[in-house]
Amino acid sequence: MSIKKVERHELIGSKIKIIDSKNPSLIGFRGKIIDETENMLIVQGKTQKKIIKNQVKMVIKLNNKEMIIEGKEIVGRPADRLKK
Predict the structure, then answer these.
(1) Which residue among 11, 28, 38, 65 sits deepest, i.e. has the most Cβ atoms within 10 Å of its Cβ?
(2) Where does 3-83 sit in CATH, by number?
């Protein structure tokens, strides 16, 4: 799956793992995306965290495939991204 397909995919419900972040305490955090805004993902793991998209690199699981994504590639309103 290419980044273009990820850009058009609904992320809510997908599982993610943070592999790099400007905030070192987020590295290794994993969970399920429960909400998304233009600049943020809200992820439920053992705790709920708000993750700023353009500050992280993550592994995301979509359709049983894992991809490494730079958060800055998915910055934008979810509704606008889905319309592309």
Answers:
(1) 11
(2) 2.30.30.210
- Annotated domain spans of the chain: 3-83
pTM over 0.90: no
Query: pLDDT by residue (tens digit) across 29-65?
Result: 999 999 999 999 999 999 999 999 999 999 998 878 8
User: Residue 75 contacts by C-beta under 8 Å, 6 or more apart in sequence?
Assistant: 38, 39, 53, 54
Alpha-carbon distance of 42 to 71, in angstroms, equals: 13
